[in-house]
Amino acid sequence: MNEYVLFFFIPLAWFVTAFMIEAGSVVMIPVCRYENYREKMLIVIGSLWAIIATSLVYLVVSLDTIFAPVMFVTGSVLYAPLMVLIIMLAFHHFSIGVAEGSSTLGKHSMERTFLVLALPFALIVAFLGNTLFTSVFSGYGFCVHNLLTLDITPNYTQMIFNAFNWVFFIGVVMYVVYFTVVFYGIKERLLVGALGLTLANILFLVSTYEWLPVVFNSAVNNAGFWIYIVILYAYLYIATTRNVPFRQAWIFLLTFIGAMMFGAFTQGRILEDIVPAGTVGPLPGVPASLLLTNAATLTAGAIVLGMAGLLVLGGITAVSYKVLYKVATERVETKKATVK
Fold first, then answer.
1. Phi then psi for 292, rounded to 5 degrees?
2. C-alpha–C-alpha distance, residues 218 and 286, integer Å
3. Strand 269-270 relative to strand 142-146, pairing
4. Quick one: CA torsion of 132, 136, 138, 142, rounded to 10 degrees?
5. Neighbours of 200 (CB within 10 A)
6. Alpha carbon distance 316, 269 (integer Å)
7. Residue 334: which pLDDT band, with cuts at 50, 70 and 90?
8. How far apart are CA 13 and CA 37, in angstroms?
């Protein structure tokens, strides 16, 4: 796979991992019966909005820099779901912002109302993001009239209502259940986390076997994939039964690595299910490397994007952790000590 294609997967994996934390927290807060975990979830939600929004912007800028020759095509095909996703994400963050403000003012009933309101927006954003992801790699929703001239039109009904999209999305939801249990170390839900991870693995393998054979074959024939699965189960047990230092950072890193592994297993190919093997090379799909911009722009863009990734994403993440998460955590601990 061309190394420049990694600039697509790195910000994508970062965005997906950060949004998983927020979405899992928002979904769990209304149903979590353990007040100690609820407090942690509220702090995390208030710390993530800047990281998620910045990651999405960085992802779009990366795509525009690396795949400039085809951005007009993908933009016209994916314009509608992408615009709805951005609008829903704005409403989602607005709801969380109002909930945070209500909590600060002591209006806890309003806080709960807006957190519940944020839930459907989180699910819609997750589903639309999954739809964009699965459509690009499978080709569902892309009506290719002439591949050479990039004459492609959208079919939104097929893009949304195809089996691959729904099976993969349910797999993502199951992984988020596992991720949330591990992230917060919810020892009372160890078995729920194990069930979520097992269902996620099954659904991911079934969906890629049926619709992304390149990904499936690359994964099951790679020993690293199976070692990674074992590590996920082992860490679930350790994180819910032991006091693991930097527990949240480790599961974030593991999930980020998993997303990057998926990117590597695609071998840089897109539209796998609509472009047969032999059309563009021996494997199904189209190599994304054929869609890259010119070499000079790639070289310069890689340097700028690399620096921007470290300074912007790294900086925003560090500030969110230090100013929003750590300070809020210390405030809660101080409040508990005062009450005692």
1. -70, 155
2. 16
3. unpaired
4. 90
5. 21
6. 31
7. low
8. 26
DSSP 8-state assignment for residue 242: S
CA atoms within 13 A on the CB side of 159: 24
Rounded CA separation 49/317 (Å): 10
Give the Cα separation of 148 and 127 in Å (integer).
31
* Confidence (pLDDT) at 294: 72
User: What pLDDT score was predicted for residue 203?
Assistant: 97
CA distance 254 to 179: 10
**Residue 200 has which token pair?**
């996620």
Among the ranges 14-23, 31-40, 170-179, which has the highest mean pLDDT value?
Answer: 170-179
Residue 58 has pLDDT above 70, yes or no: yes
Which pair of tokens denotes residue 98? 């109002």
pLDDT at 105 over 70: yes
Cα angle vertex 226, ends 172, 169, to 5°? 10
Residues 6+ apart with CB under 8 A from 336: none
For the entire predicted model, the pTM comes to 0.87
- If we measure between CA atoms, which residue out of 234, 254, 231 comes closest to residue 242? 234
Cβ neighbours of residue 33 closer than 8 Å, sequence gap 6 or more: none
Calculate ∠ Cα 195-45-308, nearest 5°.
Answer: 105
Q: How far apart are CA 133 and CA 211, in angstroms?
A: 13
List the one residue out of 252, 203, 261, 253 whose CA is nearest residue 227: 261
